Amino acid sequence: MKFSVTLLLAASAVEAHYRFSRIVVNGVAEAKEWTAVRQTKNYQGNHGVSDVNSQDIRCFQMRSGTSTATIEAGGTLGFIANAQITHFGPLSFYMARVPDGANINTWEAAGNVWFKVASIDAVRTAGGWTWPAFEKSVVDFVVPKSVPNGKYLVRVESIALHQAQSQGGAQIYLSCAQVEVTGGGSGSPGPLVAIPGAYKANDQGLLWSYHPVRTSYTAPGPKVWQA
After folding, report:
1. How distant, in Å, are the alpha carbons of 69, 98, 172, 203 from that of 180?
2. Residue-by-residue pLDDT tens, the chain, 227 positions
3. If you ran DSSP here, which 8-state letter would residue 206 be given?
4. For residue 118, what are the contacts with CB-CB under 8 A and spacing of at least 6?
5. Domains in the chain: how many in total?
6. Is residue 218 one of the residues assigned to a domain?
7. Is position 216 within any domain?
8. H or E segment and range at residue 142
9. 167 burial type by CB count under 10 A (0-12 exposed, 13-18 middle, 19+ buried)
10. What is the CATH classification number for the domain harbouring 126?
11. 225 in any annotated domain
């Protein structure tokens, strides 16, 4: 969707929020919320996280996991937005491999363990900006065939920029799913970053200007791993 200044201003007034509480594996959606997805603190209010230094920016979890989904490398893994993605901005997917012997249900994924595996970024056009994730109900990516076998936390992150004219205005909607990858390869994912730690509050990717309209935009965080 293309955004003029008028449309962007209208979008800034929208108060609808969303959460990612179910996953889709190769087109098959989970029947219930919070099955493979760790239950988040916004399970009732759908609000986002604005403090990039908060521990909530990692998985926003209220309860540790109870179930783990399985996907073969090369398959498509998606997250369902319960009320569509109602704010414009970039969307990223991160993965963190659970150490052998650790319990995926309680592993916290602290430290430099996360890599960005895919993204849905802004597109600059002659008429303005296109945000491909906007108004989507399902966002997904292909798990690279070279991802090593093992258990992972898979993190979806939608950065809403409609109120991001000043520092701290960006709203981040996120959750983490517990997934086991089979049939993988011998790749070395990276760069590895810590969450929190990968973003700074004054990152240009967490700010948005209506006047003047931005002429360039790069999402915050590391580059997508080139598998």
Report:
1. 6, 9, 25, 33
2. 333 333 333 333 345 799 999 999 999 999 999 999 999 999 998 999 999 999 999 999 999 888 999 999 999 999 999 989 999 999 999 999 999 999 999 999 999 999 999 999 999 988 789 999 999 999 999 999 999 999 999 999 999 999 999 999 999 999 999 999 999 999 999 999 999 999 999 999 999 998 888 889 999 999 999 98
3. G
4. 92, 93, 141, 142, 224
5. 1
6. no
7. no
8. strand 138-142
9. middle
10. 2.70.50.70
11. no
Which structural domain, as residue segments, surrounds residue 59? 2-206
What's the pTM? 0.92
Angle, vertex CA 184, rays to CA 112 and CA 182, nearest 5: 100
Tracing tokens 């898979």 back to the chain, one arrives at 154
- Residues 121-176: tens digit of each pLDDT: 999 988 789 999 999 999 999 999 999 999 999 999 999 999 999 999 999 999 99
Cis peptide before 191 (omega within 30 of 0): yes
Task: With respect to residue 192, please indicate whether it lies within any of the assigned structural domains.
Answer: yes
Coil, helix or strand at residue 56: helix
**Are the C-beta atoms of 195 and 171 separated by less than 8 Å?**
no
Q: Which residue has the tokens 């893994």?
A: 77
Instruction: Count CB atoms within 10 A of the CB of residue 216.
Output: 7
Q: To the nearest 10°, the Cα dihedral for 63, 64, 68, 74?
A: 90
- Residue 201 contacts residue 168 (beta carbons within 8 Å): yes
| Per-residue DSSP letter, 149 | S
